[in-house]
Design brief:
Elements (H helix, E strand, L loop, with lengths): L6 E4 L5 E4 L7 E4 L2 H17 L27
Antiparallel strand pairs: 1-2, 2-3
Length: about 80
């Protein structure tokens, strides 16, 4: 089963939205994280279905995830 990166953001108006960088234009939204997960899985399936027969959809390769803390340089 191919793996895709899903970037999740909190929406300013409430809820969440997500994008799938390997599949340009592929994303979704939801009021809760559970709803977002369901919706983004459906969006990925729809995006993959848009590829023509014989065309290979992109697959994430050699990706590492880093969560970095950046020191606050704001003067006190």
């Amino acid at each position: 089963m191919p793996m895709y990166t899903v970037l999740v953001y909190e929406a300013e108006e409430g809820g969440y939205w997500a994008e799938v960088p390997e599949l340009p234009g592929c994303g979704s939204q939801g009021e809760t994280l559970d709803e977002l997960e369901h919706n983004v899985l459906e969006a990925i399936e729809a995006c993959l279905g848009a590829y023509e027969d014989g065309e290979t959809p992109p697959v994430r390769r050699n990706v590492r995830r880093w969560d970095l803390s950046v020191p606050d340089k704001t003067p006190a």
